[in-house]
Amino acid sequence: MNFRTFILGLAASFGLPWLCLIVIPAMKYQQLTPVAYDKDRDGVEGLYPPAPVNGQGQLVYIREGCNQCHTQMIRPVQLGLDGWYKGWGQDQEAKPAAPVRPTELRDYLSEKYALLGIQRVGPDLANYGWRAPDAGALHAHLYAPLSVRDWSTMPAYKHLYRLQKIQGPVSERALKLPRKFAPPAGYEVVPTQEADNLVGYLLSLKKDYPIPGQVPAVAAAPAPAKK
Ligand code: HEC
Q1: CB atoms inside a 10 Å sphere around CB 184
Q2: Is 80 left (phi over 0), alpha (psi -120 to 50) or beta?
Q3: Closest CA relative to residue 106, chosen from 219, 212, 22
Q4: What pLDDT score was predicted for residue 217?
Q5: How far apart, in whole angstroms, are the C-alpha atoms of residue 94 and residue 110?
Q6: Confidence grade of residue 49 (pLDDT, cut at 50, 70, 90)
Q7: 96-143 pLDDT tens trace
Q8: Could you tell me which of 65, 71, 80 has the C-alpha nearest to residue 108?
Q9: Which of 53, 58, 61, 70 most suits a substitution to test ligand 1, by most atoms within 8 Å of the C-beta?
């Protein structure tokens, strides 16, 4: 084999996958625009995807590396192999399972970065906005994951919170923590602006809207009651 064939072969073996896996999908994605629902056909009005995510909070999510452990992508069923099954991407505990569907390209149009994630160490968060507890409980989880689930391996994001001396009455923003995780007497823990943005982002994660032109899907069903 001469040198020229070698270089050509090398270029082809890296170039072709690059073209097929990166360039073409990126071009396809860039051409996508939100689509309007047809009231008669889809039973809903407005644009799909409807709600933008909280962009400031998404930046915090990226910086803290949350997508090292959490995906936001529900696989389609391909070649008859089960990717998705009912209840996937849901809280695996006792709460009522809301119907979900596999995510598709347009679901990510309302956000600046599509954070598909790398590995599923923690639960998938594609539809976390539907099953999230209230903001206060979510803050407590981020501050001390072990205070919510004693088996959690998620790191504590204490640096997104401020420990401050209680002056006058306890702040209404102060986290309600079990005694083991509570600050020393006379102190309280309050969220910083960044923690608020992050929680706003997590609550805005909903990728379960009906897709125009498809069965008004599973998604049109009401969200499960919050606990
Ligand atoms: C080292 C891996 C890891 C990292 C990094 C991580 N998590 Fe987690 N996360 C987990 C695990 C494991 C769980 C399940 C146990 C629990 O609920 O604490 C979890 C649970 C959660 C839940 C609850 C999900 C549910 O369905 O109830 C949320 C919300 C969450 N993480 C958000 C975040 C955010 C936001 C960040 C970044 C600031 C982050 N996680 C970083 C591993 C991680």
Answers
A1: 6
A2: left
A3: 212
A4: 45
A5: 31
A6: confident
A7: 445 567 888 888 988 889 999 989 899 889 888 888 899 999 999 999
A8: 71
A9: 70
CB 126 within 8 A of CB 166: no
Q: Which residue puts its alpha carbon closest to atom 9 of ligand 1?
A: 122
174 HSE (CA, 13 A, CB side):
20
Q: Are 207 and 72 in contact (CB under 8 A)?
A: yes
pLDDT of the residue at 3: 94
How many other C-beta atoms are found inside a 10 Å radius of the C-beta of residue 89?
Answer: 28
CA separation for the pair 22, 210 (Å, rounded):
27
**Dist CA 203 CA 197 (whole Å):** 10
Separation of CA 1 and ligand 1 centre (Å): 52
Using CB distances shorter than 6 Å, the residues near ligand 1 are 61, 64-66, 68-70, 91, 121-123, 128, 145, 148-149, 152-155, 157, 198, 202
Output the average pLDDT for the chain: 85
Q: What is the mean pLDDT of residues 27-34?
A: 88
Residues 6 or more apart whose CB falls under 8 angstroms from that of 167 comprise: none
Q: How far does the centroid of ligand 1 lie from the alpha carbon of residue 66, in Å?
A: 7
